Amino acid sequence: MRSHRNITETKTGSITPEERRATYRTIAGLAIPTFGQLIASPLFVMIDTAIVGHISDSALAGLSIGSTVVLTTVGLCIFLAYGTTSQVARLMGAGRRREGMQAGVDGMWLAFVIGLVVCALLLALSRPICSLMGARGPVLQAAQTYLNALVFGLPAMLLVYAANGIFRGLQKVKITLVAAVSGAILNTALEVLLVFGLHMDILGSGLATLIAEWAMGLFLTVPALVWARREGAQLRPRLSGMAASMGDGFPLFLRTLALRVCLFMTVVAAAHLGEQVLAAYQGVNSAWNFGLNMLDAVGIAGQSLVATELGAGQRSRARVMTDLSARAGMAMGVLVGLVMIALGLFAAPLFSPTPAIRALITVGMIVQGVFMPVAGWMWALDGILIGAGDYRYLAATCSLTAVIYLIGLLGMTALAMNWTPTWRIAMLWAALNVLFIGVRAICNGLRTRTDVWMGTIGQASQA
């Protein structure tokens, strides 16, 4: 299972072709099942998009608003998985298994409490939030309906994120693939029944996803707690442990907040560029989120491997893991990019029956596909830095990225008001890739060229 530990380095730090292939197999063995968990929320939204798109254009536009609120909220809590993964892997690498599992349990309790609080807040503020994002009339009604149904699934999804911190840290991630496939099948069946069979329209879509989320949450939470108990971890809530998990994850929260503000404002810009642009943006965005999680799976595999090596004090092997993970991320980016271009050219009718919106989806998919290799490389390095506990650097550089991107987006959106819808959708996705992903790629690349990021491991382990 841990063939990467058999790597024998030369004086120059190189490895043999056989060892390189063994490491890639280890990365794939972790990345493929991890992808299963990562795609849960975006896959559910993608299924919702494909079905709701055949209700009406306003329903699809409303789904874009409502799903963005949900994905933003869930995304802001990604530190529950990333922080727990790194902490569990580092402690496991250091031979401190009980402490590693206790950190995972504390993270799960924190996730559940956050989920309840956020659920209550969004339920009370759903209409003002959707209106603030630019939704009006039928679009606003559809967005609020979808959001009010789906928001009750947030505690379950956050529990899933935290539980997977345990699975990844232990490098036992196959169960996540089973959970994602089962959840997707259940969601699709319920979507067809409630939307088309019982004619519940977008409400049925939200309810179907809600049920699938709780089924997946229970499926993953129970075995995570069983494994933790076997290692001697306490299952009761510990305020000190929850506080430690929050403190360790706060810089990650700031990092994610900066990034999610960018994505949130991109949807706002799309809403101001017209209903057709917003509807097409949702079609492209659902596929993009699906593809990004394939990239993120590679990054998380590298995160787990590097964190384990650093926890064991093996810096040289951590450097090798970093280089190979970055290459694997770029290769995955090429593959995902080609798939997105193919989807844009041949599968746009799956997202909308309206010819004009199909054409805009095709344009957006092609733009995204071209830039995917850079995104794959950047995402892999992002996972590495998280695994090393370099949270403050990530928080600072992602905040800088947000400032640059939002200024650029504001100016380009103002200019695009006089452009055709085709150029508007192309502008949105080009700006996202050049300013949002490109700046992060530069920052991550410069950081990993040094050894400074490896020195953060001690600080993170003490958190």
Textual characterization of the structure:
The chain has 463 residues and is mainly α. It contains 16 helices and no strands. It has helices at 17-38, 40-52, 57-76, 79-93, 97-132, 137-150, 154-170, 174-197, 201-230, 239-272, 275-311, 315-346, 355-387, 391-416, 421-448, 457-462. Helix 10 (239-272) runs antiparallel to helix 15 (421-448). It is globular, with a radius of gyration of 21 Å. The two termini are 29 Å apart.
Order of helices and strands: HHHHHHHHHHHHHHHH
Figure out the total of helices.
16
Main pleated-sheet profile: none
- Give the proportion of residues in helices: over 70%
Mean pLDDT: 82
* CA radius of gyration: 21 Å
Inertia-based shape: globular
Strand composition percent? under 5%
Query: What structural class is derived from the secondary structure elements?
Result: mainly alpha
Number of strands: 0
How far apart the termini lie comes to 29 Å
**Low-pLDDT stretches:** 1-13, 458-463
Topology (elements, then pairings):
Elements: H1 17-38, H2 40-52, H3 57-76, H4 79-93, H5 97-132, H6 137-150, H7 154-170, H8 174-197, H9 201-230, H10 239-272, H11 275-311, H12 315-346, H13 355-387, H14 391-416, H15 421-448, H16 457-462
Helix pairs in contact: 1-8, 1-11, 1-12, 2-3, 2-8, 2-9, 2-11, 3-6, 3-10, 3-11, 4-5, 4-7, 4-10, 4-11, 5-6, 5-7, 5-9, 5-10, 6-9, 7-9, 8-9, 10-11, 10-14, 10-15, 11-12, 11-13, 11-15, 12-13, 13-15, 14-15
